Amino acid sequence: MFTFTERPVRRTAIALSTLFLLAVAGCAATASDSGMAMPDRPMAGMSMPQSASSSGMMGQDHAMPPGMNMPRTVFSEAEMGMHRAMMMATDVNTQRTWARKMIAHHRGAIAMSQALLGSDATDAEARRMAQAVIDAQTREIAELESWLERHPG
């Protein structure tokens, strides 16, 4: 069956797989509880809970694995919301899943661009590009949503 040296490796692999699944389940529960997992809804709920933002410790809202202290930027909330929404954007059909994930991704790009425009950024070219991203991604979201309506599950 197994040699003595294979058992610890197998146990480690099983333990890591279990931890990964628990972490994903925890993120899914956090996202769906906060309304951020709705792939057809705007990502309006992308703000971090006060406990995480005030302590400076990401992960206290289960958005990041414990022990991963990431620097907070003006883009952190948009990034976290985008990643949650992308992970939750699924469908029975691969093409519909792709469309839902792209919508979440584009909404994240819009949120990051809005964060730049709402920041202290003064470079005119960067601000112009951020607005161009908002305009283009908004059009692409409409196109993807239209495709989803025309191609029901």
UniProtKB/TrEMBL annotation:
Pfam family name, one: DUF305
Chain segments carrying region Disordered: 40-60
Signal sequence range: 1-31
Domain DUF305 as annotated: residue spans: 56-148
Keywords per UniProt: Signal
Regions of compositional bias (Polar residues) in chain numbering: 48-57
Protein name as annotated: DUF305 domain-containing protein
Organism: Brevundimonas mediterranea
